[in-house]
Each structure stands twice: as C-alpha cells, then as structure tokens.
Amino acid sequence: MKKISLILMMLLFNHCSSQSKKIMERRIIEVVLNSVGKTNVDKKLTANLTGINESNLTTSLYYYENSKKIIGLPINDETFNYEYFNSKIYNNLENKRVKLFLDVYKNKSKEILIVNKIE
Fold first, then answer.
1. In terms of Cα–Cα distance, which of 64, 59, 17, 14 is closest to 38?
2. Between the chain's N and C termini, which has fewer beta carbons within 10 Å?
3. Is residue 16 pLDDT above 50, yes or no?
C-alpha cells in the first residue's frame, strides 16, 4: 500500500511540475516588423521554462513598440510556418504589418511569449 501511495504522489508531483511548461494562453498581436535575426533570449532558460527544445529557439522577429523600443520575440522553429513567411513576408520584411500568433507561458508573474505562426 505504501508503494502505491508513493507512486501516486510521484505521478501527481510530475503532473504539477509539468503544468508550468504548458501553454497558458494563446494570443494574437498585430505589429509592424522591423527585422528577423538571431534570437537574443537565454535559450537554456527559455527552454527550461517552456519545454521547447533549445535547438528550436534560434530566431526572433523584431518590431518597434511605440515607435521607440525594439522588441524581439523568439520563434518556435518546430511550429513556425516558414514556407508562408519566406514566400509572402521575408522579401518585403521591413515595415510590414503582420499578425503574430503567440504561445504565452507563465512563470510566476512573468510571461514568456513565443511566436508560433505569422500571417
């Protein structure tokens, strides 16, 4: 009986700890792109907090917030629609208005935004 209780507690603990890596919300934002390039986020930390493989966090999309501050959002290379991006957006990237489909992960009070798709 103790073994069964111990196994159930371990399963419950694993389930609770893995919930922090689940997508908490999906969000769509419209932005005017500035550029695309190498990501500036801590890949190891982001991978640990989101459950996304480090090798899928290589690129970010950059845009201006309030015409002043440049914001970079990392792309999940595994889910991002690169075919559409390369054919419709990449050649006319600068100042292009797009919709970014974001996966929102939450860690304590901080939100981690990852680009899932672009239109």
1. 59
2. N
3. no
Name the band, by pLDDT with cuts 50, 70 and 90, for residue 27. Answer: very high
Listed in sequence order, the DSSP H helices in the chain are 2-19, 43-50, 82-84
- Higher confidence at residue 69 or residue 29? 29
Per the CB < 8 A criterion, the answer to whether 99 and 30 are in contact is yes
Separation between Cα atoms, residue 50 and residue 61, nearest integer Å: 18
Dihedral angle of Cα 47, 98, 96, 64, to the nearest 10 degrees: -60
pTM assigned to the model: 0.78
